[in-house]
Specification:
Strand order of the largest sheet: 3-2-1-4-5-6
Oligomer: single chain
Radius of gyration: 20 Å
Strand content: 15-25%
Number of strands: 12
Shape: globular
Distance between the termini: 34 Å
CATH topology of the largest domain: inorganic pyrophosphatase (n-terminal core)
CATH class of the largest domain: Alpha Beta
Number of helices: 13
CATH superfamily of the largest domain: inorganic pyrophosphatase (n-terminal core)
Length: 334
């Protein structure tokens, strides 16, 4: 069922000061949706700050060349901004665990809260929700709101929303992509989005260390569960040897999905605190969210994530056991 956007229009009508937030380790959908919404609100004369739980990844800073997106850790005064704003809009997540230090501040605030999101996993944030789990990207929802209030995005907003949607749909190859998605993309191109430039900035800016890291990681790709699962991992020593950055692991898990016969894949990426971030992927006939949720994470049917404690061997054992159970449970009837 389409979202009724009229309540959001009423919510933003009178208030003047807005804070926008998204999840830890923000991706292009999170950042592009925030920037698109911020530009919309500013066009209405509103004061807007974007304050996230963490810093913008280096490879996505081109979306925010003026550095207007702040981390809550940048300055103590930013927590005060969160507490004193009129409306706090959370985009691309509705889970407390994904909001980090920003979430802790929000929980002490009586500020009106709004959620715009497309993820299945959800907590009660005490917010008015505008949620569609069938939407391929939060960027699509922001554009739908623009359409509902007859607002045409400027070229910068169009590029931000295009990047949001293109990345969350795997450049339009994921099953979540529909004809409606492509009509949205056409509208964004009409508004000034430049697909060729965006693709170049997103996918053709790799440094040599990233390629070296990719070689290390792909060499250790392993299959399990009768070839239905493929996986690999990255350690802190890999980053040290290759001189690559953690963001350089983005999309490596998708390489595992290129193996014939696989239904799912995962990659473990060791963090500086020695914990492991796991990214889960699958084909349309397999849902990885039950696995992510058992690990305290969440996401989508075909793309979810979670955080696991080390050591690596224990994390791998846990994941292999969960995938084996879930693959049996979700196997087609003979």
């Amino acid at each position: 069922m389409p979202i009724d956007w009229s309540p959001l229009e009423k919510i933003i009508d009178q208030p003047n000061r807005f804070v926008l937030t998204s999840h830890v380790r923000p991706d292009a959908d999170a950042l592009g949706s925030e920037l698109g919404m911020a530009l919309l609100l500013r066009s209405m004369g509103k004061t807007v700050q974007i304050i996230n739980p963490g810093a913008t990844p280096a490879h996505l800073q081109f979306l925010d060349p003026e550095g207007e997106i702040k981390s809550v850790h940048d300055a103590p005064a930013l927590k005060k901004e969160i507490l004193e704003c009129d409306v706090h809009i959370v985009l691309d997540t509705s889970a407390w665990g994904q909001l980090g230090e920003v979430g802790k501040v929000m929980q002490t605030s009586s500020t009106q809260k709004v959620v715009i999101d497309h993820h299945v996993s959800s907590d009660d944030l005490g917010a008015t929700q505008f949620k569609d789990t069938s939407s391929p990207a939060t960027g699509c929802l922001v554009f739908q709101f623009m359409e509902a209030i007859n607002h045409t995005p400027n070229s910068r907003a169009a590029n931000c929303l295009y990047a949001a949607i293109a990345t969350d749909t795997g450049w339009f190859r994921f099953p979540s992509t529909t004809s409606k998605t492509m009509r949205t993309i056409a509208s964004l191109m009409d508004a000034g989005a430049d697909p060729a430039q965006l693709y170049n900035l997103l996918y053709e800016q790799a440094a040599v260390p990233r390629l070296h890291l990719s070689g290390m990681v792909l060499q250790r790709v392993t299959t399990a569960c009768d070839g239905k699962l493929a996986y690999t991992y990255v350690t802190q020593s890999d980053f040290a040897r290759s001189k690559a950055h953690p963001a350089d692991t983005e999309n490596l898990v998708n390489e595992c999905m290129k193996i014939a016969g696989t239904r799912a894949a995962f990659i473990l990426v060791q963090q500086a605190n020695r914990k492991f971030k796991v990214s889960l992927r699958s084909r349309a006939d397999f849902d990885v969210t039950p696995i992510a949720e058992q690990l305290g994470g969440g996401g989508h049917r075909q793309a979810s994530g979670a955080m696991l404690p080390g050591p690596k061997e224990a994390a791998l054992k846990t994941l292999l056991e969960l995938f084996e159970q879930e693959l049996k449970k979700q196997s087609p009837a003979e």
